[in-house]
Amino acid sequence: MKKKVFALLLCGLPLLINAQDAFDVLQMSQTELRGTSRFQSMAGAFGALGGDLSTMTQNPAGIGVYRNSDLGITLGLDFNSTKSGVDKMNQTKFNVNNVGYVGAIRLNSETVPNLNFGFSYNRNKSFSRHYIGGVLDIPTSMSNFIADEFVNMADFTPDDLYWTDDFNPYFDYPYAPWAAITTFDMPTKGDGYVGIINDRGDGSLLMQGLYGQGTKGNAYYEVDEHGHADEYNIAFGGNISNKLYFGFDFGIMDLDFHSFQAYEENLDNAYVLADDESLFDSPIINQNTHADWGLYNYLHSEGTGVNFKLGLIWKPTQTLRLGAAFHTPTYYDMRDTYYVAASLKAFQDGNMLYSAEKGSNNGYDYSSEYTIKTPWRFMGSVAGVIGKSGIISLDYEYVANQTMRIGDDRGGDYPDVTDRVKTYFKPSHIIRLGGEYRVDPNWSLRAGYSIKTTQVEKGVDEYEYNITTVGTNPTYQYDNTVQHITCGVGYHYKSFYTDLAYVHQIRESVYNAFSPINDRFGYEPNVSADVKDNNNRISLTLGMRF
């Protein structure tokens, strides 16, 4: 196919100068219920309890509760099941969820009985998720979305419509070769280049996508993600008169995220060029035509970050404990590598009109560096001791998603992305409830439940906003609710202990292939689907206190 044909096939959106956008930093900021088996079996409701290796990542005042040193390791086996539409994908993953040590230093003082220190490794998030699905009788095409956005590009020039083999899908504004997405209206001659913008007659502009009157089609998508967010903790704490426990924690984060996203459409009576010989003379047809095309985005994000946590636990009586904790954002230095590829085939009456394939940067990855800041977090907790055998604990966590930020590699925030974060996201709330019953001096039974509310504003969920993404990937996802149902058993003998936990996670999410269109020409829906995870985890902790 001639290079000029790609000019119509490969045009796109105004690109941001940063490597990620609002929904990307949301993805990188997520945490989940992990840690020791005792912690997991009580749904993480330990904010007012302490005395567990996982408290370094939650309320570091829990380290002050220790009277003896503690050493433990937690192993987990995850059985992930993700369903979108009628398609279900299953994965099995082995993880080391926690390794920790707390050293207790007894001071033999009534005012400050002990000062403690601790080190731990904790897997805060596993990104493993794979799902596929399809949407029948789609109401529009992604190419129409691209066309609408491209019209809004204020300062493009004719040269910007041409493909270059070494284009950068994130930085070469405004190339954005949403490869193999046909966006055009009737081509016209003008100043030696192909003009694809037509005047509507009222001063507004029109660009046509593959989908128009009489077009029918289906869409297919695949999302395959894996990676982790791991935290290494250094914590210090103690207690005052066995009434007030305090602690602070310095966390070092290691993030590694891989993503492959594919989106394909099969369209009948698609609006395509009649042939590949001349953009000036070839008509656009949509009778007995068919278009198959796909867009494939690859991304690898990696980074290191730091955060700080401060916590208190107050024990006004022997049966009541109150806890509070404060988490700063994690400040990440990030590096992305990415690649985009695409393909297009156009037919009429069963005969191929043309076929094209293309990839960015001659098939090699591009890279970029930037910074992100995750949300502030605040926690409040209350726990009660029932006689000598029972514990019940309740935690509340406030996650200020609207405080997330993305900036350049020098630390300066991008104001346009900041505005979108404030528009798209709202605080999410996490409630955790857990209980433990000691059957005898050696055996304990545990159970818990937690729920996390959605992070997005109502306007996002009801498709009232035009969602901006970055580079060549218009897809965005978010969680509506995440629930955990947990139980477990613990055994303690002299200095040794072992705990076993079962965690069932229910995660309800929304996949959007691209944003809906809301502009002066009216509303056009997008292609979206519900995604549901039913994940199960078995966790085993082995440890000793001395």
Features:
546 residues; Porin; two-stranded antiparallel sheet; elongated
Description:
With 546 residues, this protein is mostly beta strands. The protein has one domain: Outer membrane protein transport protein (OMPP1/FadL/TodX) (Porin, Beta Barrel), CATH 2.40.160.60. Helices cover 8% and strands 54% of the residues. It has helices at residues 3-9, 22-28, 37-41, 142-151, 415-424, 458-461; strands spanning 70-84, 87-106, 114-126, 129-135, 188-190, 193-195, 198-199, 205-206, 216-240, 244-268, 272-273, 284-285, 289-317, 320-327, 331-348, 351-359, 366-373, 376-386, 390-400, 405-407, 428-438, 443-452, 476-493, 496-512, 517-519, 522-524, 528-545. A 14-stranded antiparallel beta barrel has the order 1-2-3-9-10-13-14-18-19-21-22-23-24-27. The N and C termini lie far apart (74 Å).
Task: Give the rounded overall mean pLDDT.
Answer: 83
Distance between the ends: 74 Å
Class in CATH?
Mainly Beta
Which band does the percent of strand residues land in? over 45%
Please write out the topology.
Elements: H1 3-9, H2 22-28, H3 37-41, E1 70-84, E2 87-106, E3 114-126, E4 129-135, H4 142-151, E5 188-190, E6 193-195, E7 198-199, E8 205-206, E9 216-240, E10 244-268, E11 272-273, E12 284-285, E13 289-317, E14 320-327, E15 331-348, E16 351-359, E17 366-373, E18 376-386, E19 390-400, E20 405-407, H5 415-424, E21 428-438, E22 443-452, H6 458-461, E23 476-493, E24 496-512, E25 517-519, E26 522-524, E27 528-545
